[in-house]
């Protein structure tokens, strides 16, 4: 019998090796450097739940069988080939590279054996994420079903186990953009900023043995003001006589120990707490044991951070984001989290970490995780290396051409989402928050993005704020603000721009998206035959660097106007969208790291002077502009603005398509300011003159929010006493308005 078992395992090993040799990535698209190291034997072998670590576990990633059949068909008797889990069926690294249509279903099958040491334990089967509806069968019996493409789920499969080999089957249906379930940017026919669909298993599948009284959930909540850490936990099936042992360490030194009867919530003091921040990502490690009658029932390793996120007033009276009771500017990247070889699944853990290391090295301190939820290891890396995370909820609606579902910026009412869909959306959002609220790097929740499927805003945002009062909530990132949430978030491409802080007292003013400067790098494009675009596209690297420099230069003044955070679009190119700091294959960093760090430093300057208006615009209160629709004559930009050629009109000034406009105003200069900036609302070619000197010559396409232009380098043209600023607007592309303001800081 022993000889037979040895022969069996030898044959099994040979079959696995043969299968591994036949698997290979598919398709002719670009790939990352990490893809070449992926194999059926090493696909995502890292421990998938770093926030709650047990030593005993089994990874089920690797080659499974798959079949794509018509929706509603019985489980296939014959499977069509092999797929490498955890890569989605559409991806190159899956080895399949086929789309899954809404009228189809994807079936998976694999088998595994459990160690004998698990015999007296409960077996928990975990799925990191399956997009979208998953039905799980073990040994021919239905275990359960889960709907939701972004949240992890698990089943206790103990009663379904049999002796010997276990057969696991997963049935998946994914409607993608044929329905309104949360899916982010996936679409069946990719174009623009809509990307290749992702269906099926796309995060790690794994098993672990646990005692019935083991820890089920564990969330530490710090209170730096009280110098306490509170542990909130639950057990699977407690009997009521459990003890809890806790040992807390920092940098290898034990700082606290305690043993008490188990409580779902208890607090412990932390003497001289070492606070967590991006500059000093201090983490405390702890070990927790559940004990009954002297027997250790469960032991887990975890960690926490002592940090606090809140709103507060800075020295200028502006509402800002506070970290550890101090104003802290969030300077971040919009991070889509897409990969040319794995789509939503990074090829490896090293690849996942690489993007984060690059943006950190460039001087960013924040990542806005854009309508995607990452594997837990992403947030673990953010905790460890020191990056703040704004976490979006994946949006769910049909398409932009459904105006009732895509709520425009000036819409009076939200979309009326069907009741069943609203329940599903909110269940997924709650599950995502539950599974991520452990991670201290996450400081902001973002339920809605740009009106995409935005519904019942006030209720959903208020629920989010109430459900997790330990974090801030950016209720609506861009477009359709409903005066709810901790922030007013503007989007402007390329920008920069913000909403007036004076009109939004008590809320932080943030720029949730801007930039989007595109540069298509040859030999690093997803598809050379399609439009490769950015919100502004440049053909050389030097042009891109110049424009990025100008963009940052124009962002500095906004801090003096109350800007609390800014998010640049984006980390990497994604398919045809080439506005990344990195190419899609991550081979080229478009903005040199050292250059970026230097450009970013002024955003963090302390004691910034509050802006003082020299010429007021009409954004908040109606103002006056001296304007003329006909050329005012020679040296018009030096004249007294009350000259005959100009007429005093209320701002903003209406301008018809194709109409030209000249405008001037005067202001007094008693002492040359350190810095000076323009607020500009225009749609066309604009020339700006200061005392007759041309200081700005650019094409401007303002949308909703005033553009900001830093003109500090031109303070040399100021003179004591009266000064004149003039504007020439030509080539107006549509009926629009014109307005401007001038301020010093």
UniProtKB/TrEMBL annotation:
Residues 1-20 form the signal peptide. Residues 105-206 form the Glycosyl hydrolases family 2 sugar binding domain. Residues 226-307 form the Glycoside hydrolase family 2 immunoglobulin-like beta-sandwich domain. Keywords: Glycosidase, Hydrolase, Signal. Residues 351-483 form the Glycoside hydrolase family 2 catalytic domain. One of its GO terms (molecular function) is hydrolase activity, hydrolyzing O-glycosyl compounds. Pfam families: Glyco_hydro_2, Glyco_hydro_2_C, Glyco_hydro_2_N. GO terms for biological process: carbohydrate metabolic process. PANTHER family: BETA-GALACTOSIDASE, BETA-MANNOSIDASE. Belongs to the glycosyl hydrolase 2 family. This is Beta-galactosidase.
């Amino acid at each position: 019998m022993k000889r037979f078992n040895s022969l069996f395992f030898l044959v099994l090993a040979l079959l696995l090796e043969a299968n591994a040799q036949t698997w290979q990535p598919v398709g002719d698209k670009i790939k990352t450097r990490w893809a070449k190291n992926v194999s059926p034997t090493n696909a995502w072998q890292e421990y998938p739940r770093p926030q709650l670590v047990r030593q005993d576990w089994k990874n089920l990633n690797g080659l499974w069988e798959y079949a794509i059949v018509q929706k509603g068909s019985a489980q296939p008797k014959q499977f069509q080939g092999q797929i490498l889990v955890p890569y989605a069926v559409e991806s190159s690294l899956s080895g399949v590279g086929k789309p899954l249509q809404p009228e189809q279903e994807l079936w998976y099958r694999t088998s595994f054996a459990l160690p004998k040491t698990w015999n007296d334990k409960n077996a928990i089967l975990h799925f990191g994420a399956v997009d979208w509806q998953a039905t799980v069968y073990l040994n021919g019996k239905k275990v359960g079903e889960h709907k939701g493409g972004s949240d992890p789920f698990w089943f206790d499969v103990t009663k379904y186990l049999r002796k010997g080999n276990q057969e696991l089957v997963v049935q998946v249906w994914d409607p993608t953009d044929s329905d309104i379930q949360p899916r982010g940017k996936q679409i069946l026919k990719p174009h623009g900023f809509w990307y290749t669909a992702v269906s099926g298993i796309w995060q790690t599948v794994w098993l672990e043995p646990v005692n019935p009284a083991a820890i089920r959930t564990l969330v530490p909540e710090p209170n730096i003001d009280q110098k306490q850490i509170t542990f909130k936990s639950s057990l699977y099936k407690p009997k009521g006589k459990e003890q809890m042992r806790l040992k807390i360490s920092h940098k290898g030194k034990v700082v606290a120990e305690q043993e008490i009867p188990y409580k779902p919530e208890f607090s412990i003091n932390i003497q001289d707490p070492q606070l967590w921040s991006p500059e000093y990502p201090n983490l405390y490690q702890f070990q927790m044991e559940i004990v009954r009658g002297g027997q250790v029932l469960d032991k887990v390793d975890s960690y926490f951070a002592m940090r606090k996120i809140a709103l507060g007033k800075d020295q200028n009276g502006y509402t800002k984001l506070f970290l550890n009771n101090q104003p802290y500017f969030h300077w971040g990247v919009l991070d889509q989290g897409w990969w040319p070889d794995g789509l939503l699944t990074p090829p490896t853990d090293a690849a996942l970490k690489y993007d984060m290391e690059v943006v950190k090295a460039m001087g960013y301190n924040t990542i806005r995780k854009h309508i995607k939820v990452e594997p837990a290891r992403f947030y673990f890396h953010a905790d460890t290396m020191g990056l703040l995370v704004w976490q979006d909820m994946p949006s769910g609606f049909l398409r932009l051409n459904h105006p009732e579902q895509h709520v425009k910026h000036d819409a009076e009412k939200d979309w009326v989402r069907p009741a069943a869909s609203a329940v599903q959306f909110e269940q997924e959002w709650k599950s995502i928050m539950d599974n991520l609220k452990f991670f201290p790097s996450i400081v902001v929740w973002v339920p809605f993005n740009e009106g995409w499927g935005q519904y019942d805003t006030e209720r959903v945002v208020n629920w989010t704020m109430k459900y997790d009062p330990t974090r801030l909530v950016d209720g609506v990132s861009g477009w359709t603000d409903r005066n709810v949430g901790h922030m007013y978030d503007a989007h402007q491409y390329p920008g920069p721009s913000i909403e007036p802080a004076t009109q939004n007292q008590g809320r932080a003013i943030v720029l949730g998206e801007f930039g989007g400067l595109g540069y298509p790098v040859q030999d690093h494009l997803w598809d050379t035959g399609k439009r490769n675009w950015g919100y502004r596209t440049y053909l050389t690297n030097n042009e891109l660097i110049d424009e990025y420099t100008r963009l940052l230069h124009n962002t500095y003044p906004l801090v003096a106007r109350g800007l609390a955070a800014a998010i640049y679009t984006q980390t990497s190119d994604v398919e045809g969208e080439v506005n990344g700091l990195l190419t899609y294959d991550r081979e080229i960093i478009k903005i040199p790291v050292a250059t970026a760090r230097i450009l970013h430093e002024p955003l963090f300057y302390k004691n910034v002077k509050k802006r003082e208006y020299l010429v007021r615009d009409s954004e908040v209160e109606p103002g006056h502009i001296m304007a003329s629709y006909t050329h005012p004559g020679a040296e018009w930009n030096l004249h007294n603005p009350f000259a005959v050629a100009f007429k005093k009109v209320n701002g903003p000034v209406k301008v018809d398509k194709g109409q030209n406009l000249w405008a001037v105003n005067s202001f007094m200069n008693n002492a040359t300011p350190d810095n000076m900036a323009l607020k500009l609302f225009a749609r066309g070619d604009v020339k700006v003159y200061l005392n007759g000197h041309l200081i700005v010559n650019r094409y401007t396409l303002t949308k909703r929010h005033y553009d900001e232009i830093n003109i500090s380098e031109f303070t040399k043209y100021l003179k004591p006493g009266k000064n004149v600023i003039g504007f020439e607007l030509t080539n107006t592309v549509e009926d629009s308005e014109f307005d401007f303001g001038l301020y010093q800081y």
